[in-house]
Amino acid sequence: MLYAFDRALSRAEGVALVGVDEAGRGPLAGPVVAAAVALDNKRSIRGINDSKKLSPRRREELFCLISRRALAFCAASSSRAFVDREGILKATFAACRKAVRGLEKKLGRRAARLIVFDGNLEIPRLGRNQKTLIGGDGKSACVAAASIVAKVTRDRIMRRLDAKYPEYGFAAHKGYGTRAHIAAIKKLGACPLHRKSFIKNIV
Q1: pLDDT of 195 strictly over 80
Q2: In terms of Cα–Cα distance, which of 54, 83, 82, 81 is closest to 151?
Q3: How far, in whole angstroms, is CA 55 from its chain's centroid?
Q4: 73: helix, strand or coil
Q5: Which helix (H) or strand (E) holds 96?
Q6: What Cα–Cα distance (Å) separates residue 102 from each residue in 49, 50, 77, 106?
Q7: pTM given for the model
Q8: Which of 9, 108, 121, 154 maximizes the CB count within 10 A of its CB?
């Protein structure tokens, strides 16, 4: 169904697609990550779906399949400091631009594509044809693939950072505002990973 949507959109627009999505806009800590994915519609990947509907194990499995079967993919991030300095929306768009441009370098001459972005706002200063798609990670295969790549990439980052700040439990909650995470912030104070603009009412 998701691949059928992509094939129909590609035919209607007369161009191949690149899916773009992000992970980590809402957490209290860590970076925001975006991913851009160009799929090979002749090599469909069974089970691709909105990353939020998949278990962590299934996301990892699909990430491996995407890395092998996609034409190309790229993930990029904006740091916690960037989020605090510029705001989460600008940080998200900056990560999206980096991901798309990184993907285009990998695609080379095949880069003339329509950017399909999950949401209702176009990515500013991208200079590429775009289509916004609300709920795109549940409608489009390339956007769903981007959601998986972004989520798995960010989760891996947060697990690595957990080793540096184990007392906060980042490996478990990935920086989201769980009860345990908020309790840790109140007890220990903020660490360098925390978004100061997000925790004003906690510390």
Answers
A1: yes
A2: 54
A3: 16
A4: strand
A5: helix 88-107
A6: 23, 23, 12, 7
A7: 0.95
A8: 154
Lowest mean pLDDT among 57-61, 87-91, 125-129: 125-129
- At 39, list the tokens: 């799929």
Name, in order, each residue with C-beta under 8 angstroms of 113's C-beta and a sequence gap of 6 or more.
15, 16, 17, 18, 38, 107, 128
DSSP letter assigned to residue 199: -
pLDDT digits 0-9 by tens, 15-36: 999 999 999 999 999 999 999 9
3-state SS of the chain: helix, strand, coil percent to 5?
Answer: 50, 15, 35
| Bridge partner list, 17 | 114
Q: How many CB atoms lie within 10 A of CB 28?
A: 23
Q: State how far Cα 17 lies from the chain centre.
A: 17
**CA 170, 27, 81 angle in degrees (round to 5)?**
90
Domain spans in the chain, listed from the N-terminal domain onward: 2-188
The set of residues, in sequence order, having a beta carbon less than 8 Å from that of 115 and lying 6+ positions away, is 17, 18, 20, 36, 100, 123, 126, 128, 129, 130, 131
Say which CATH topology domain 2-188 has.
Nucleotidyltransferase; domain 5 (3.30.420)
